[in-house]
Amino acid sequence: MSTITITAADVNKLRTITGAGMMDCKKALVEAEGDFDLAIENLRKKGQKVAANRSDRESTEGAAIAVVNADKTAGVVITLNCETDFVGMNENFVKMATEMANLALNFNTKEEFLAADFNGITVAEKLIEQTGVIGEKLEIRTFEKLEGAFIGSYIHSGNKIATLVALSAKVDGAEEAARNIAMQAAAMAPIALNEAGVDADTIAKEIEIAKDILRQEGKPEAMLENIAKGKLARFFKDNTLVNQDYIKDNKMSVAEYAKSVDANLIVTGFKRAALG
Q1: pLDDT per residue rounded down to tens, the chain (276 residues)
Q2: With a threshold of 0.90, does the pTM exceed it?
Q3: 266, CA 20 to 30 Å: which among 27, 65, 147, 213?
Q4: Which DSSP state fits 197?
Q5: Residue 211 has what DSSP assignment?
Q6: How far apart are CA 153 and CA 202, in angstroms?
Q7: Cβ distance 131 to 125 under 8 Å?
């Protein structure tokens, strides 16, 4: 009976391919009698078992990543979620999330992205494989794409929040402006770009909340509608990106800041992804 010799080079090769730990790779190669394809398959099967066992776990940690294409006309923001901050801050985990985000630039939907090839297997299969390697539930929670004349991005320290901003033109100063406004979106968490982007249900709810408060203050019923609309204007100012006070100079709005860079420059869109 022949004995298969598993070398350190073999183990390292499998580790490079799969990202699994050294001991897991050695065990997989021993069980597969040195057959790399079988060892990879066994590691993936292990990932499927772990993924099934952890399917009901909360994955609120991870990495939020925003990337932009070379000509700054499209960007994507994703979150690669895991269970613990310890894993989410791991250098290799963040590297994988960034590689996935760069791949995601080529697709328009989360479904297309998950089905895409990622080093020989699909993104979805890679998530299952790495669930077995890491021992935590992994998932792509957020996938948002943004296109425009000029796209800028911002990733908050620790990869907890990532944002994209679209501007109407590639003008002098557009890169700095887009980054500053993307930073604004990260810090201030607007719910929409402008008033038109706020859904009718949210508006109706805010008006009713304002009316209830006014009634408790003893305001006459006939006055409630007009006063509530005034409070709604304040809600729009606080919660829509272009109307918010610019965080670096609160004497102007974000829209006014854009025009200070170029008289015709406007913010045309944004995307924001946050862990939790």
Answers
A1: 346 788 888 877 777 766 666 777 787 778 887 887 787 777 766 665 555 556 566 788 999 999 999 999 999 999 999 999 999 999 999 999 999 999 999 999 999 999 999 988 999 999 988 888 788 889 999 999 999 999 999 999 899 999 999 999 999 999 999 999 999 999 999 999 999 999 999 988 888 888 788 778 877 777 777 777 778 888 899 999 999 999 999 999 999 999 999 999 999 999 999 998
A2: no
A3: 65
A4: G
A5: H
A6: 27
A7: no
Tokens standing for residue 122 = 């699909």
How far apart are alpha carbons 114 and 60 in whole angstroms?
19
Count CB-CB contacts under 10 A for residue 24.
20
**β-pair partners for 163:** 154, 272
In eight-state DSSP terms, residue 240 is B
- Edge-to-edge strand ranges of the sheet holding 150-155: 150-155, 161-167, 267-274
Q: How far apart are CA 23 and CA 245, in angstroms?
A: 54
CA-only gyration radius of the chain, Å: 24
* Helices assigned H by DSSP within 135-249: 174-188, 200-216, 221-239
What is the length of the chain? 276
